[in-house]
Amino acid sequence: MGENSLFTIGKITGVHGVKGYLKIRSFSDSPESFKPGNSILLARSGIKAVSGTSVRQDAFKKDKGAISISSAYSARDDSKAGKWYEIERVAPNKKGLLLLLKGVDRNIAESLVGDELLIPRDALPSLEDDTYYWQDLIGISVVDIQAGYIGTIDHVIQTGSNDVFVVADHNRETLVPAIKNVVKQVDLERGEMRVELPDGLME
């Protein structure tokens, strides 16, 4: 993932009123992402997705049991596939947010429906200690304390109780629950997660 990576924080679902307000389905829990004065990139959905899967904010926090995930970001490496705008106003809406962008009137707004909203990596909200973005965990090695190397994290599945890392090694996939009793250590510098899998979880 390059330093210029962009993260999707929402999608334009429609327009509102005559001034050009955009209806936004937000993927972010943080209101800071949509603060007036911030710059965002609007790009057509699906352009150069890095992993092809959603990545989640607050993926794993060591002092939690089951991890509740509500923020989704997908990552890209291309900043030339859209246009940058400055947020002028933001307001709550029943199904998300309303955004007014500088230079965007009703006619322009209608042409933007379906676009995704992206921000650079350095504009993402800061996380608490021992909390990680999903994208930082995708691709790192997973090592079981007893069995050794299992594979690398390919993507994440949301479930009703806790989320699950899909760890791939050639043609084998292992499902690793994102809970503190299983995930013992995350070392992003080494690119490694150490786990203690319950009996019978590995084939």
Automatic annotation (TrEMBL):
Gene3D superfamilies: PRC-barrel domain (2.30.30.240), RimM (2.40.30.60)
Cellular component GO terms, alphabetical: cytoplasm; ribosome
GO function term, MF aspect, one: ribosome binding
Coiled coil region boundaries: none
InterPro entries assigned: PRC_barrel-like_sf, PRC_RimM, RimM, RimM_N, RimM_N_sf, Transl_B-barrel_sf
Keyword Cytoplasm: yes
The protein's role, per its UniProt record: An accessory protein needed during the final step in the assembly of 30S ribosomal subunit, possibly for assembly of the head region. Essential for efficient processing of 16S rRNA. May be needed both before and after RbfA during the maturation of 16S rRNA. It has affinity for free ribosomal 30S subunits but not for 70S ribosomes.
Record family assignment: Belongs to the RimM family.
Free-text domain note: The PRC barrel domain binds ribosomal protein uS19.
Protein name: Ribosome maturation factor RimM
Originating species: Desulfamplus magnetovallimortis
Name of the gene encoding the protein in the UniProt record: rimM
